[in-house]
Amino acid sequence: MLAFARRNLLVYFRDKAALFFSLLAVFILIALYVFFLGDLMAEGLPDFPAKSWLLTSWILAGILAVTSVTTTLGAFGVMVEDRSTHTYLDFYASPIKRSSLFAGYVMSSIFIGFLMCLVVLFIANVFLFFSGGELLAFTQLLKIIGVSLLSVLASGSMILLLVSFFTTSNAFAAASTVIGTLLGFLAGIYIPIGNLPAYLQTIIKFFPTSHSAALFRQLLMDRPLQEAFSNAPIAVIEDFQLNMGVFFEINGSSSSLLFSVLYLLGTAFVFSFLFLTVMRWKRT
Amino acid sequence: MLKIIEVNGLQKSYGSVHAVQDISFYVEKGSLFSFLGTNGAGKSTTISIILTLLQHDTGDVKVNGLTVGKDDESIRKEIGVVFQDSLLDPLLTVRENLDLRARFYRMSKYERGAAIGRVAEIVDITAILERRYGKLSGGQKRRVDIARALLHQPKILLLDEPTTGLDPQNRKQIWNTILQLQRDTGMTVFLTTHYIEEAANSDFVVVMKEGRIIARGTPNQLKTDYSADRLVITAANHSQFRNQLQADQLEFREENASYILNLQRTTDAIPLLAKYQDDITSFEVMKSSLDDVFIQIHNGKDGSSDAGIC
Fold this sequence. Notes:
Chain A is an all-alpha fold. Chain A is 79% helix and 1% strand. Chain A is elongated. Chain B is of the alpha/beta class. The longest helix of chain B is centred in the middle third of the chain and has 18 residues.
């Protein structure tokens, strides 16, 4: 299983085009922020201390959330490609259990998603430092790493269910492009959730990646929020946090860090169960 | 005589499509066995069942005494397979590909290194071990595919149309390797091919059509039963020669201004050539080929898929 997972890693990282496309949504997000959204959001807010640091942290949290989905999705592309090219026949004709092969795909995809999150986190940290912010504290970094793993597990379980329906690389590539594009909207990453209509806000609150983004925001924006709103009333801070999707308003009250963590854990459990049910149904 | 593969009463359907209908055959240990048939004949389904990739509906399949459906993992250790398409990873080097597959057979690092060295020598790929599989030529890829199939020293080498798409030179080279291997190791080779003449080297041939076996035998038996040598004559005076053949009550057919007479034996041409030597401008004795046999079997001598010599 480990050897097979290693093979999947090699195949993924040597396919430069696949690697690029799994990061495409991230690149789009960076470009949108640099050329368009960054200025737009800054103009929409009054001047306050650490404003740039705060907004950069907000977008970097979104980038981390997107990375946890798109790179895991791209990594599962190896499994779809093997199915598409019938490479799996060579594995099935070998004395290795299908469950081991499958576990190898899952393990490598989760590892790739997590590793890419760590790379993005490192770059984000350096970027924050050079753009006038502060380096993340060690405890914050550990928490972000934990959230990255949780996000990858949750998105991995959703993707697992999705890829069980794809048998051709072309269909999977098309679906990946659509998912990558929609992700920014569905997770409230392109535009702050408070600027969107109520029905869209409801959809976003249900979407698990939104909770990943919220968790990343809570951790990345903690210091700049303290700096920016040091003298502001609690209500103003809460209003800003709800508007920016740091927390979500659910049943009239603000969601908590624990709620988002449990939501992601629940997502991982429910989608893994659904996947196993689909596989059992397909076998019969 | 040891039977290394035994198939008895095998049936497999996909919904209302009966892919394999009650077929039985066996493969002798150490033999070169050819499995022929057009697309949709049921070859691939049968092979997939033998390889434990597909479950069968009814019947028994045994591989080296092991039962398909019960001892699948052990059976996979007995068979090395070269699939019709190249299925190794194009982005990995030849060595990486072989090393990964060797791990599937739980070989230690030392065993893997030794196995790769051994198979690389057999199929002459030592020089390309560090090259990416996707960058190799078609012939090189096929040699690597064979190396992959031989890694675990299987008792049976299953080749599913191994030379499709290769140029004649590469085809010949691949075949030399396979035949050499069979001679040297006594390995059983189970072959499916579209190049019927490749089956001429076989010890035994089975022909399938529409899910059933419609003919079986050694290549020579099949040639005897299903085709004949031909005498092709070109005459100076066409109408006169035609009348003469008709007067002598010989069966013949005309093709491109030539007359074709079927022969029971090649030597039957001698008296005919002597008799008509004054009329003949040129002649050719054509030996029957397995291609003729295959076409004959499929197009009609048997008349139906149920007939034949099974």
